[in-house]
Specification:
By secondary structure, the chain is mostly beta strands. The chain is 14% helix and 40% strand. The protein has 2 helices and 10 strands. A 7-stranded mixed beta sheet has the order 1-5-6-3-4-10-9. Strands 2-7-8 form a 3-stranded mixed beta sheet. β9 and β10 form a beta hairpin. The longest helix is centred in the N-terminal third of the chain and has 14 residues.
């Protein structure tokens, strides 16, 4: 019996540029803390879905592994993954973690968004 392991088709880091996706230091630090709390490394999956009050919405979730077709963005030993369908909507974006009066959350700073809703979860292009 043999096992086949697949690796992501693309792997990006801030130093290689690629599609300009970056994982901010704040997000990397938060992912490291979450991984310590879980007892194993975690990745942040960032996807764009249709819907939301502005046309598109971000879907953020913690995952243990990337899918074979995912693009992996690394910083400081931590990773975020993006599926190829979401990639064009996120070109040039920074994935960060903010902790302010409105709450603590991962955010996508997307230069492609022409407008967004008040909570920052949905946007239009």
């Amino acid at each position: 019996m043999s096992t086949v392991q697949s690796s992501p088709a693309f792997e990006l880091s801030p130093s290689t540029g690629g599609h300009g996706l970056t994982l901010a230091d704040s997000a990397a630090r938060r992912l490291a803390k979450l991984g310590e709390a879980e007892g194993h490394p975690v990745m942040l999956r960032v996807a764009v879905d249709g819907g939301g009050c502005s046309g598109f919405q971000y879907r953020l979730e913690l995952v243990e592994a990337a899918d074979a077709e995912d693009i992996v963005i690394r910083a400081d030993g931590q990773a975020a993954v993006v599926d190829p369908v979401s990639l064009p909507f996120l070109k040039g974006s920074e994935i960060a973690f903010v902790d302010d009066l409105s709450g603590a959350q991962f955010v996508v700073r997307n230069p492609n968004a022409a407008s967004s809703c008040g909570c920052g979860v949905s946007f239009s292009i």
